[in-house]
Specification:
The chain is α/β, with parallel strands linked by helices. It contains 8 helices and 5 strands, in the order E-H-E-H-H-E-H-H-E-H-H-E-H. It has a single domain, classed as 3-Layer(aba) Sandwich (Rossmann fold). Bound molecules: thymidine-5'-diphosphate.
């Protein structure tokens, strides 16, 4: 059977990537593709429990505990949901994946990036996105879009979020074939047009 595609959506909180993911899903459905939408952390039942701790636990979460929680969620997600869907020929659109760990825990929390890359490898067990769309937005704009209702990660100060953005841009330099940059400062319509072009290009190549 023909394998599906695995596309990840990355960017800061407030980058608008989730809105665009849903727009892309509708667009691909209209073209007749079999599409599934998912997210990290927390797409499945066990993942929901992990997500709840990660985003809403109000006690201290040690940096390394946070890393393993994101990775535990990812390992479960890849094994029980993403890989089977790709094997069934579906296009999987995933809101955040391995690059979030490098950007947030690596660049943001300043944990060992090479170590995180190795841990990501263990969690994904050989899976790699066919394409990653990076929705890049200025940290100030992103923070305004997030507003006042912030979860545990969003509540970390603006300097952390600047480091996260910088981390994503470093990942882009390292992976120019896989990661495609989209200027998410633009209007929703313009961002959607840019995202569509990238998706169409990928589909034409497969
Ligand atoms: P979520 O509400 O899903 O945010 P968004 O809608 O912006 O994707 O919350 C996920 C949060 O977890 C977000 O702040 C990014 C963070 N995160 C990490 O720090 N590391 C990771 O590996 C992942 C997957 C997410």
């Amino acid at each position: 059977m023909k394998k599906g595609l695995f596309i990840t959506f990355e960017g800061a909180d407030g980058s608008g990537k989730t809105t665009q993911l849903n727009n892309i899903k509708t667009f691909l459905n209209e073209k007749g593709f079999d599409v599934v939408v998912t997210r990290e952390p927390g797409s499945l039942e066990l993942g929901q429990k992990i997500r709840n701790i990660l985003l809403h636990y109000d006690g201290v979460v040690a940096d390394r505990c946070e890393i393993f929680l994101f990775l535990a969620d990812r390992a479960q997600h890849v094994e029980t949901f993403i890989k089977p869907a790709i094997d069934e020929g579906k296009i999987v659109l995933c809101d955040r994946h391995t690059d979030s760990t490098i950007a947030y825990q690596g660049y943001g929390r300043e944990q060992d990036i090479e170590l995180l890359k190795s841990l990501n490898e263990i969690a994904v067990n050989g899976l790699k996105p066919d394409l990653t769309m990076l929705f890049d937005v200025s940290t100030e704009t992103a923070q305004q879009r997030v507003g006042n209702e912030k979860d545990r990660m969003e509540s970390i100060g603006i300097e952390f979020h600047r480091k996260v953005r910088n981390g994503y841009l470093e990942l882009l330099k390292e992976n120019p074939d896989r990661i495609k940059l989209i200027n998410a400062n633009n209007s929703i319509e313009t961002v959607f047009e840019d995202a569509k072009k990238i998706i169409i290009d990928l589909i034409n190549r497969n």
